Amino acid sequence: MIPAPIPENEAERLATLRRFAILDSEKESAFDRITDLASELFDAPIALISLIDTDRQWFKASCGLEAPELPRDLAFCAYTILEDRVLCVPDTTQDERFKDNPFVTGEMGIRFYCGAPLVAQSGHRLGSLCIVDTKTRHDFGKKQQKRLADLAAIVVDQMDMRSVTGNVLEEIEYRQEAQNKAAATESQIRALIQHVPNGIALMDMNGNYLACSDSWRDFMALLDTNAASNGIGGLSSSHPGWYKAYTDALAGKTIRIAEDPVRLANGEVEYLRWEARPWKSRQGEIQGVVACSMLVTKQVAARKTMERQAEMLNAVLENIKDGVVACDAEGSVTLFNQSGRSIHGIDQNAPLGGDYVESTNLFEADGITPLADDRNPLFEAMKGGSVVDREMVIAPDGLPKRHVIAQAAPLKTSDDKLIGAVASMTDVTSAKLAERQLRASEANANYIAFHDTLTGLPNRAHFGRMVENPKNKLQGQTTAAFFLDLNQFKAVNDLCGHKVGDDLLKRTAKLLKRIAGKDAFVSRLGGDEFIVFKPVIDGEAALQLGHQMAHAIGQPLVIGGHTVVSGVSVGIAMHPEHGNTHEELMRRADLAMYKSKASGKNEPVMFDHVFELETVKRRVMRQELSKAIENEELEVYLQPIVDAQTQEVIGAEALARWNHPSRGLILPNEFIPIAEESGFIVELGDWVLRSALEAIAPWSDLFLSVNLSPVQFKDPRLAERVFDALEETRFDPEPPPLKWSAPIVRKAEDQRWPLRDRSPKRLS
Known about the structure:
With about 775 residues, this protein is α+β, with helices and mostly antiparallel strands.
């Protein structure tokens, strides 16, 4: 903590402070009201009127702090008196002067300070009016700082008034008594009064001035020139109220006016606080009247500003969406804004008062459990507690329930006396409804994401999530994986339509669920592929279950007027014999399924490790085949085509052979399917066509027959590829007949053969 430096004029400053005779004085309501107002106006828990003495700061008034004084070397206000402007510290933990202060680091936890200096008319800064908060406040702007400075000016005015009406009068009485005792001259009293900073006048029984301060005379001149020179009698016609106060004081009364609007001779209006009381001798006889005055125009303007702010605050309360309800210490409602009444189903014109829960049904957040009294936010705050973000349900009689988030806090005076409580309620009914709808939507989206929308079965994503969950790890129990693929499903779609195909998939899913049972996991992986995991006794039981699936799915079905017969290929793998994870079992069941499909018998096949060796062999052959053209391992043979009647050679059929460097001659029936699977068949077909055209070129009178794979017919550029080969090899006779390498089932009306459009002659 860095102690504040001592002002250069410290001695004069302390002397000015002592002339006010205010240190260690009793509490006065006028000052208490200012700190209470500052605390409420700026929403600060602590507000202080602090006077800086030699080694202490003494509080003339305080709101939210019980200590009467604190050491000067720890005082924030010791810095405030160093300048005329407001000292505002939004975050004390970030200010080098205060971040190590015990009031910042300790239990008080001060985080915000703003103080306006109390500047006497002499220019000396005597202390400050300050506000303190336990939370940072970066939003405390220039406008609010000016209002704090205005209140500080009111504090100084109040100190001046106190000095004038108290100390000055005491000084006058003291001087008068001293005059009687010591025969002091009247000129001494007049000199004393003349230099009092506020207006003061001593008048005789006829209203003539015995003595008056310069400020009194100056102000009277603004009212009426006669009153400034001839005494109070000059105001009998222009300001009869003042003259009556003088006459009442002569009758022994003390007259006080807090805010007297006075119209000056120039037409302007000033507000004056003044007092008139009888001036008596030591024997108690009235000798005249002493009057004191102070201009309070600025204070009145500040008060009216505060009143307007209070009206604005009330307007805000009545127009905010949050409900606000407050009650006194006895629980009687004192404030209920429009939103609060609406939430509670209370008529807007209903009078305040009465018990808060007389006509209100309150429930916990579930909307079912009644809210106990000790859980009622307002009642809890009345006991001194605070409530933050409590969810509850308000159910007015005959009206829909309202879900609210409630806050509540106790209301206390500056001396920590509990006077009531306030609660606010944010209506979140719409948000709750939206939240429920969102949860339902998320649940639906989650279901869609992890289930096949056609069959309702778990999809591949669901399968992936299932196998990633450690709880689903395969344990010691024997488990069979069934990989199923519908046979000729594409033909069903092409011949009968996709709706029939969809119905076939849905019926297959139902059959699998029924046959596999409740302890099985059944999933559609996509297309016409299904996977089933089921605990079984042994491999024999798994094969038996696979036969049941194949038999049930292979039965003829009538769907949409079509009789559909679709077999199924079933591959089976066993845990732990064939794998310890779901992924291993599915992969190996998939290999077994291909064996089942290759057999064409619609019978289940149990996985054998030989299948993997065959797969590896095919993969190696696929890799080697992709380099066979580059390595010149492929050859094209021309097999003569003889006319059966004439025995003449009329053409040739192109036959591809693979001279493998280590395996020798490989026939097409072994490597063509691999080329078709890998997609290499298109490149291979182009090479065979070009090679065959080049080979038959010497025999221009022969036609050429080239076998095409069904995969090549799926290539939209097939026609372009054929004619490119013809042009490159300059083969110009009639185009070569092309024939399929295997039968393909397709509708006659769907046949499209673009070669016809460019053929100069018939194409067989």
